[in-house]
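Methods: example folding runs. The two proteins below were folded one after another, and each record is reproduced exactly as written to the output file, sequence line first and structure-token line second.
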Amino acid sequence: MKKFITFVCIVLGLQVFAQQKHLTIDDAVLGYYKGLYPKSLRALQWVGNSDHYSYLEKNAYHIKDYNNQKVADITFDDLKKSYPDLKRLPYFQTVTENQVVFQTPSAFEVFDYKDMSPKQHLEYPSTSANFDYCNQNKSVAYTIDNNLYISTSTTTKVPVTDFEDKNIVSGQAIHRSEFGITKGTFWSPKGNYLAFYQKDESNVTDYPLVDITTYPASLKSIKYPMAGQGSEKAKIGLFNTKTQKTSYLEIDTSDEHYLTNLGWSPDEKYITLAEVNRAQNHMWFNYYEVATGKKVKTLFEETNDKWVEPETPSLFLPNSNTTFLWLSERDGFMNVYQYDLLSNQSKAITNFSFVVTQILGFDAKGKYVFVEATGEDPKGLQVFKVNLSNGKYQQITKKEGTHRTQLSTSGTYLLDNFSSLTVPRKQAVIDTKSKECKVLLEAENPLKDYALGATEFVKLKAKNGMDLEARIIKPVNFDATKKYPVLVYVYGGPHAQLVTDTWMGGASLWMDYLAAEKDYIVFTVDGRGSSHRGFAFESGIHRNQGGVNMEDQMAGVAYLKTLPYVDSDRMAIHGWSYGGFMTISMMLRHPGVFTTGVAGGPVTDWKYYEVMYGERYMDTPQENPEGYENTRVHKYIKNLEGNLLLIHGSIDDTVVPQHSMTLLKEAVDQNVQVDFFTYPMHPHNVRGRDRVHLMEKVIRYILANNK
């Protein structure tokens, strides 16, 4: 009888396993489009100046209150009546208590969903880009080529700048989008002015890329400031919407210093700027008078012998034109500080020994500020409510994991988009006073029917005693008595965190495919240099990229070798961009550890990288020749043991193709065999359908050579 029961259990177990689905590489890369990522309420956002929220579902926008009661619905059919050319429900860029704003290929539209009628139509030419809509004055700023324009209710094309010299670029992000810069235009709080970035790239070298889509191929030239060479000179322009005149702040940037984190005072009298010297070790917080363009004064300064990197503009307190909050990691961790433009008074608001990632907003009375921060676990994100008077705080979100939140205008409610290693997604509204949580959506595990291995977090120690966060993905039907090959996936550089307490632990689905379908262990460790760990952890790479971060990758290797189920003779490594640099560095500077490496879009010589990022971490080649020489992977090419594949987009404008080309030339000169593949007409990353080809290329190479 027992034998019969055992037989039945085995058969049933086999049937269950047989019924499980198996991931394909197409599934893994295109999983979002195949429904393999957790469901969500799309476009979930607060309705301006209210405690109502909106989201997109089933071809309609739904607006609801805190109790999940319907306030309004806006359907595709509703819009189609007023906009017959619409092909699908558009994304609403702005939702107010009675209007929505959306963009079509030729215009911004303002639609009143209370009386179901169009209110404004803001046209722009088909060649326009870099749009910035202002709800206060119902105008939109945009660029055409290197100039800036505004479309209003009466005029489609109001010129803000008119430069024939293509080296003068207005209204676009400057400094190659470093320092938290994501755009080039900044409407004033009441919509009376448009501030904008302008850059003079005359000193920046032209870099040649080749467009193979023309007959014959043609030159696609870009401006690329390489470390130690000429950089751009920035300006701040001001356009007065009433006089329609353009003026500039009086700032001398002949020294090529950076103008970052532009902010407005609420009364529109002042513009605040964090000005950073080109060496990026000194920041001056200056403010300027809008009426004259003159500098009022330097309110405070920050210096550091490694780098200073402001990334968030001033945020003024409610009902104050002079008191604002500032984020700084001057004391080792990103914290909140308060300043006043006129009184020179300042104080620390938070004193966390963990990282504040952003300021979410305030309560209605301006007594409390809400911040997002890692909390004690750097893999996650939590929300804290901080008293502005005494710095006392309480944690609003409690569940371990990652809470990505939006605060309502009143500060009464949070929209919480939560996930963790074990929770695919939970979207909820949280009362910030009572902490009551009302669930809007709880997503099922979209991979529950698939045969997948386990993902686990591991904590390691760096050589200096610092904690290192790591993630290991094991194969399906893992057997600790077997020996498994390993892929180490690496990034290892600034502004990145791969190991997170989110769904799948922050791993991409192709890693689960490799573990589940190819019987691999996939391992990642966030070494020193990566984000969300504080300045000491992040700044160990200064002047020596690939130093302590390679040391920490080797700590990960040492850990893997302690595991009885790891086949340490079959270890491969793969990474992209900075991870490509780390992959090559690990292959060449620790030969014999890995049989196989695949380096995508790799930095190979830091002197070929851009001024803004490269000089922050390495100084200039003239100032740090030894550091540049020691991190240049070309000098180690003779050390190659095993197989190395370089992959590069042919028009990569971030890590330019010269990186891979010069390394290939060195390999030829040294009679060293490496492999190379390019993706024609792809920039720094390979996206779309071609990404399936990329990941199949990477995985095939690893499987074929990691033996």
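Second run, written to the same file directly after the first:
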Amino acid sequence: MKLTNFMMAAAGASLLATSALASSDVRGRDGHANIIYWQAASILNPYLSGGTKDIDASSMIIEPLAHYDENGNMVPTLVDEIPTVANGGVSEDLTSITWKLSEGLKWSDGSPVTSADVVFTGEYCMNPDGGCQQLAKFGDVTSIEALDDLTVKITFGKPKPFPYGPFVGASVPIIQAKQFEGCSGAAAPTCTEQNFGPIGTGPFVVTEFRANDTISLAANENYRDPSKPAFATITFKGGGDAAAAARSVLETGEFDYAWNLQIAPEILAQMEAKGQGTVLSGFGPLVERLMVNLTDPDPALGDARSTVANPHPFLSDKAVRQALSMAIDRPLLVEVGYGKAGKVTCNVLPSPAIYNSTANDGCEVQDIAGANALLDAAGWVRGSDGVRAKDGVRLSILYQTSTNAVRQDFQALIKQWWGEIGVETELKNIDAAVFFGGDQSSPDTFQKLFADIEMYANTFDGTDPEAYMGSWQCSEIPSPENAWLGSNMPRYCNPEYDAMVAEMAGTADIDERARLAKAMNDMLMQDYVIIPLVHRGNVAAAANSLDGVKLNVWDSDLWNVADWSRK
């Protein structure tokens, strides 16, 4: 039988692992590993992409000051300890946090990591012309300054009970000031060499990057732990679909790790029974949802399409948005798409449990009759073709998502239900590498939302939702002015919501923070600008020969790839 390149690499890794020269404290001792993400990485700079596949791929190369571990606890990465009020790292008045870099850290090019790199990274993201995708993590920051070569002080404009937004978690890593010095502001997306091959502190370095396809990586010879990583090289393969990715780990053994296995549960169980690998799962705050475009995506509007200058012709009507939600059978979506790896939710913030609201539970029961009555009362009248209209405007929706079997099943079911309430639906699916990519020239990114409705899931680092809920502030609306990199896809703008974001930023009491988070969630749900579908478990697969994998629903799946090894 002819071996594929990946199987040959795996075979070579096995020979190396059994070699008499192999030792538990030698970097690269376990040869090669293969990772597959069916959504291919399109960039290695999380500041220019909100796509999980880009953040995760980047996390093997560039790192934050601290990560969240598999239990949601903050753990030091480029520092020796997490700053707190108790240890003096957070000021008593909660207006500043001071981080002390570990001594001796080096970039992969051998140069020292200094506080100047941290300062530069913060300024890079906060540049108003840069369209930073992670800007919400820097909420209320007024200054970032280097006190000495290893010490960085972040000052906030108000008391900040949770000062761990900047530089904690895989989405906000430190980038090298020297490499990115010409890439701030409007130049950020143009720096292809830097964005495709960042110099980092992580366990691996990029040897080849093929956008929307494959990344080749080698062990970082300047990594801070001389015994890590165990793998000398890694191939990060993208593309295909979730079923093929799962099969490559669980059945053929061609890959060692597969991410985000959106596959019918019975099929996944059949694959796991082959004995090559193990399915991993865990529940965090990941929600599959519909994002409702409150602006007009009509191509005739040119550069002003999907911008706040043009309200949507019918989704601006709350009755229409509410009816769309009422028509959906969420328990059936869970059964069809996820089984035990899914739960019905009526919230965009279902986890941690302290933040889960019960105010929207009515969505758990489908109500076609109620949705029809609501549209009748709002003056939307069925035409001879069964499609409702008012004042010459027809309820005709373009509904887009990424290409994936479960998502296409969802699209088909939702189209059917919406047809029952007089809404015409055109379905569109886009290759995930494009949909979640950062290509500013593409009309098909999820940030641009050149459709009426789009469907996807995302989550946030750690267990505190302050920055996540800040995603739907007015200032986070994507537009040509910020290179379409804001995180407020519905283009929702409500001063009351913004006021709650600001209040939460200054609130220390955990119960009050929970009250505010629930109130923000409830406002989004009851305005029907986000329509939640399924509270999804994170599902992945690891080869039985792979050791050290700890599925992490609070950070990158690859957060501890330095600790992976071959059994």
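Comment on the second run: The chain is about 25% helix and 20% strand.
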